[in-house]
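Researcher: Please translate sequence to structure tokens.
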Amino acid sequence: MAALTSWGVSLVQDRVAVVTGTAHGIGAAIAEALRADGLVVIGVDKETADLTDPAQVAQFFGSLERVDILVNNAGGVCGQTFAALEEITDQEWRSVVDANLTATFHCTRAVVSGMKARGWGRIVNISSGAGRSVSLTGIQAYASSKAAQIGFTRQMAHELGRHGVTVNCIAPGFILSNPTTVRQWAGYGAEGQERVLAGIAVGRLGQPEDIAHGVRFFVSEHSAWITGQTLSIDGGSALF
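Model: Translation complete:
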């Protein structure tokens, strides 16, 4: 039996989507939107599995019968704030790179064999505007790993396209989606907040649902001939 989504796309109701980083914010909104479209959604957060640990990733995905759609949303700054590059420790660098890039690699590696065997799959990586420009937080490893996610998206699209699997990326702008971004926004003060808003063409911050709508498009049949692309959903703040 099929479910008709608001995109006008018939989706098999038992198609399974795994969304990482669903504890709050963007990941939670993506999971909710895909469930509303009739998909079976399995959320993963830190309480479920450490996605930087290949053994835990293999165990988690090995427990699933199938994965048709993967949304790599987990990541972040791992509680770090700006420090000059010469003050960054090896562990601080690795923890952010692992959270954003290595976790994406682990989860993608875990699902591609099944997608290739079935001849259909959708992978959406959630990068950041920092990966296309610079990080407002100034965290070097965050900007670097988010840029690397975009490169990984292109490479996997090239590798998997002939197997019926598309791989795309979304680069969100500033969204109040978790405690870290709320603290960051508060830290700007009134003048800093005005400057940020002045740089956004539509004049407002994003909502987690704005990103979820982009994911819904990329996993739909409307996007079947789109792969390897990075879509900035940022209200126009990346215009150049």
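Researcher: Any highlights?
Model: DSSP finds six helices and eight strands in the chain.
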